[in-house]
Design a protein that fits this description.
With about 180 residues, the chain is of the alpha+beta class. The chain has 2 domains: about 1-80, no CATH class; about 85-175, Immunoglobulin-like, CATH 2.60.40. The protein has 4 helices and 8 strands; from the N terminus they run H-H-H-H-E-E-E-E-E-E-E-E. The strands form 2 sheets. Strands 1, 3, 4, 6 and 7 form a 5-stranded antiparallel β-sheet that branches. The radius of gyration is 21 Å and the shape is elongated. It starts with 9 loop residues before the first helix and ends in a 5-residue tail after the last strand.
Length: about 180
């Protein structure tokens, strides 16, 4: 019998220690049925803990807001939030280039894309938008610049993935081969 209309019978709810009178035992906005089966979000999480991986972020937020893995405490928004933005000085001749590269999120979908931004206070200037995980840029001479990379699901919905403060995996300044 299914007392809470979540498509899980009482035996299954008991097996997972779920509350058979609530379709969301841990009140994390993900139904018990969705937490036990991969379903539409693709994740299997603990239906009795709102934060399956104990990283301080609710499973729902990790899946639908931050696009991180709710079962891996080291893939959490905490590790992607900038503590201090990384700054680079543009090379004085304005000719040499900087090549950025970054990793693909674990939950990346084919329709997602990346943007690389130059950030100056509240002003963000896009210098790259696309599906590739690298970009080469010729910086402005003698300026300190903050760069940030974002992964986008839709045009206006950027995830916190790799909002970069040193989280880009490689930045290569090419002084031997100017463009």
């Amino acid at each position: 019998m299914d007392y809470d209309n979540d498509t899980l019978d009482a035996v299954t709810e008991q097996q997972y220690n779920c509350d058979y009178t609530s379709n969301d035992t841990d009140n994390d906005l993900i139904t018990d049925q969705e937490e036990i089966n991969p379903g539409t979000d693709g994740w299997i999480t603990n239906p009795t803990r709102a934060d399956t991986d104990f990283d301080g972020y609710l499973d729902y937020d990790e899946i639908h807001v931050f696009f991180t893995d709710p079962t891996d405490k080291f893939d959490s928004p905490y590790y992607f939030q900038p503590l201090m933005c990384r700054r680079f000085r543009g090379l004085s001749d304005g000719i040499h280039k900087i090549t950025f590269s970054w990793s693909q999120p674990k939950n990346y979908l084919p329709s997602w894309y990346y943007k690389l931004l130059i950030v100056n206070g509240s002003l963000e200037t896009e210098i790259y938008s696309g599906i590739f995980r690298y970009f080469t840029y010729i910086p402005t001479p003698d300026l300190f610049i903050t760069y940030q990379v974002f992964c986008y699901k839709t045009y206006n919905n950027r995830g916190i993935y790799a909002q970069w403060s040193g989280g880009i995996f490689s930045v290569h300044v090419d002084v031997e081969n100017p463009e």
